[in-house]
Amino acid sequence: MKFFRILGLVVAILGLVTIIAGPQTAAAAEFTMKMAHVGSAAKFSKPHEALLAIKDPIERLSGGRIEVQIYPSGQMGNFRESLEMVQNNTLEVAMTTVGGIAAFFPEFQVTDLPYHLSNEYVAEWFSQSPFWAEIGAAVLKKTGNIRWMGAGRGGYRHFITTKKQVKVASDLKGVKMRTINSDMQQEFVRSLGANPTPVPWGEVYTSLSTGVVEGIKNDCSDIVTFKMPVKYIILDSHVPIYDFIWISDKWLKSLPADLQRVVAEGIRSGMRYEDNYWKWAARNFRSQFAKKMKGKITVPSQAQMDTFLPAKEHMRKWFSKQYPDGEHWLKKFDAGLAWTDDKVNTEYKPYITY
Question: How far, CA to CA in Å, does 143 sit from each of 157, 190, 270?
């Protein structure tokens, strides 16, 4: 009996020590990888879901040696500010759209040429074309530290308006259209007769509510997620919304070789996840826009689409003249499109030839 009383006392003491010391924790990570984006951290937020899909495999496959921290909602500043932090090696990773990198490498806006990527399947293949490695290398050479690591498709940009339903290009005349801080997008909107108005994402809701802008160029998911005060959308799909991952080259190269690979594979996995996530989100959010927000969706006929297509050639000519290397990157972009066409043609044929 004395033995069992002593044993009980030992167990009680050990339990007390455990309570005081707290639960056992894993060893601290060797490296911290901070990732920033300007989108919401709410459920179903595309950029946040994509970064979560990057965080999981990197932490898991690194065996806990890398801790990934996500900073949403512009906590690290807007696109340009977060990229400046990457450039200065004070932030490891930033996710931006094309508007962010345009301030550092204006020719990157070639990826925003409208009406070149006709559907989701084509856009998904293009995101894997050799074009990106070429232009990514050029960005790194120019900036010295901003390395492109991947592109994920977050939907398509469509014209979405508050008061005026757009069915053909002429309906855009005079509409104050919000754009990102991109010369490409502003010229595109201007070529269709609308008035481009650059507005930071954090100010879009108020700008739409007060009439500062009367429309935006976004995907339907953004409208539903942030409950934007708009009524009409035309699914003209003028350009895919690519989310780009930029990493501090100095930080990446400071990692052991095995962890560099884990980071690269984790990012690529997250970007493919975003591609697939968007396919579900697009259908779901269009339904919510129509049913919950009482919005009206126009699926344009080919005749209606034809009224927008002159902007395609206009923007090609504009881009080639706008920048010293514009013609060079236009040819590279076309080569990427040709690579994509070849892949798409190769992929679909087996399913219709047997």
Answer: 28, 30, 25
- pLDDT score for 4: 42
pLDDT above 70: percentage of residues in the chain: 92
pLDDT computed for residue 8 by the predictor: 52
According to the model, what pLDDT value does residue 3 have?
44
How much is the pTM? 0.86
Dihedral, 85, 90, 93, 94 alpha carbons, nearest 10 = -20
- Supply 107's token pair: 């020719």
Strand, helix or coil for residue 31: strand
**CA dist., res. 205 & res. 226, Å (int):** 8
Q: With b meaning 16 or more CB within 10 Å and e meaning fewer, what string describes 67-87?
A: bbebbbbbebbbbbebbbbbb
179 contacts 198 by C-beta, under 8 angstroms = yes
**pLDDT for the residue 14:** 43
Which two structure tokens, joined as six digits, stand for 199?
A: 């507005």
Distant-in-sequence, close-in-space partners of 201: CB < 8 Å, separation ≥ 6: 38, 74, 78, 180
Q: Find how far residue 55's CA is from the centre of its chain.
A: 16
Question: Residue 118's pLDDT is what?
Answer: 85
What DSSP assignment string belongs to 161-222? Answer: ESS---SSGGGGTT-EEEE-S-HHHHHHHHHTT-EEEE--GGGHHHHHHHTS-SEEEE-HHH
Q: From residue 221, how far is each of 36, 217, 236 by CA, in Å? A: 20, 12, 15
Cα first-last separation, the chain:
82
Phi, psi torsion values for 186, nearest 5 degrees = -65, -40
Question: Helix (H, G, I), strand (E, B), or coil: what is residue 70?
Answer: strand
* 273-291 burial code (b ≥16 CB/10 A, e <16): bbbebbeebbeebbebbee
Residue-level pLDDT at 39? 86
CA 82 to chain CA mean position, Å:
14
Q: What is the mean pLDDT of the chain?
A: 90
